[in-house]
Specification:
By secondary structure, the chain is mainly alpha-helical. It has helices at 26-29, 32-48, 59-63, 67-77, 90-108, 119-123, 127-140, 178-182, 189-196, 198-216, 226-229, 234-244, 260-276, 286-290, 294-308, and strands spanning 20-24, 152-161, 164-173.
Length: 312
């Protein structure tokens, strides 16, 4: 009399009373968009970790113990997590995983994104949870990859009740649209410059370098590379002080930032100063500027140039 089940492996049916197990419906696993999502994320992880000589072949088998996730997060966030290097025991693995996932949560919490995973689901090799985690990381760090849109999977939930196995299906949305996921803005003049007019782009860069140096030279500072020299936010904060003619207290920002978070803090603080000065919120995220995204940096500087180009 048990309800019909979907291709459940024998080990998956060894459940305690009221225990629940979830698995992806086999038809969803064969969906081309699902396969593409898994492949894109696998290639991205292997690309990020190439220098570590780590090769991930299967997401649920290689990521469940926290070891690879730790290396991935450290590489992406330019940080060092305080965890044991190698942990064989299940308790040790879960402790490491807990530390890694708490660090992820600290990064994602300001965005208000739902966290659709936990230590037990990742350690239990739940592929849906692992994919939710990786998609969120790719979104946060603006990974240079194209995630397939509208990937939804059917998940089979099996529960043992009164000695019988009962199954139900739920639908899980793994990706939405690129605009929603990456927070892309409508195309602007900089998109056009980058795509179609590299010669004009160089003129814009020269004009901006002249503009910022006219003011930063007052502090004996000089910019030659827009992409890298504004990435830690220090020059950006100092430039805003010069343009608005005020001294920025040094305790408000990191004068010598040595971590990704400190650099993001500086750029975000500069954005706040821009808002205080009556400017619109920049069409960029602080993380993009820190990650050396030239287009984002130019957008921020051009916003300043537009308002302050006549300031002596």
């Amino acid at each position: 009399m048990a309800p019909a089940l979907v291709d459940i492996h024998p080990e998956d049916t060894q459940l305690e009373e009221n225990e629940e197990r979830t698995m992806i419906d086999p038809t969803s696993r064969e969906d081309p968009k699902f396969k593409e999502l898994v492949k894109v994320l696998l290639d991205w992880i292997n690309d990020v970790l190439a220098e570590e000589r780590i090769i991930v072949k299967q997401l649920e088998e290689d990521l469940y113990d926290g070891q690879v996730l730790q290396k991935l997060l450290e590489k992406l966030a330019h940080c060092k997590l305080n965890v044991a290097e190698v942990t064989q025991s299940e308790i040790g693995q879960k402790q490491k995983l807990q530390t890694v996932l708490e660090a992820v949560q600290d990064l994602l919490r300001p965005h208000g994104w739902p966290l659709r995973w936990n230590v037990d689901s990742i350690h239990g090799k739940n592929l849906v949870s692992i994919l939710h985690l990786l998609v969120s990381l790719a979104m946060h760090f603006r990974a240079p990859i194209h995630l397939p849109e509208h990937v939804t999977v059917q998940v089979v939930v099996v529960r043992k009740r009164e000695g019988l196995l009962h199954s139900s299906h739920i639908s899980e949305e793994l990706t939405t649209t690129t605009e929603l996921m990456m927070g892309r803005f409508e195309r602007d003049a900089f998109d056009t410059l980058f795509d179609h007019a590299p010669d004009k782009l160089n003129l814009v860069k020269k004009s901006l370098i002249t503009f910022v140096n006219k003011h930063l030279n007052k502090l004996n500072l000089e910019v030659t590379d827009l992409e890298t020299q504004f990435a830690d936010g220090v020059y950006l904060v100092l430039l805003l002080g010069l343009l608005e003619d005020y001294f920025v207290p040094l305790h408000n920002f990191y004068l010598t930032p040595d971590s990704f978070d400190q650099k993001v803090h500086n750029v975000a603080f500069a954005f706040e100063l821009m808002l205080d000065g009556g400017l619109k919120k920049p069409k960029a995220r602080p993380e993009d500027v820190v990650n050396l995204d030239l287009k984002s940096t130019l957008r921020v500087l051009y916003t300043l140039f537009t308002k302050y180009k006549d300031v002596e």
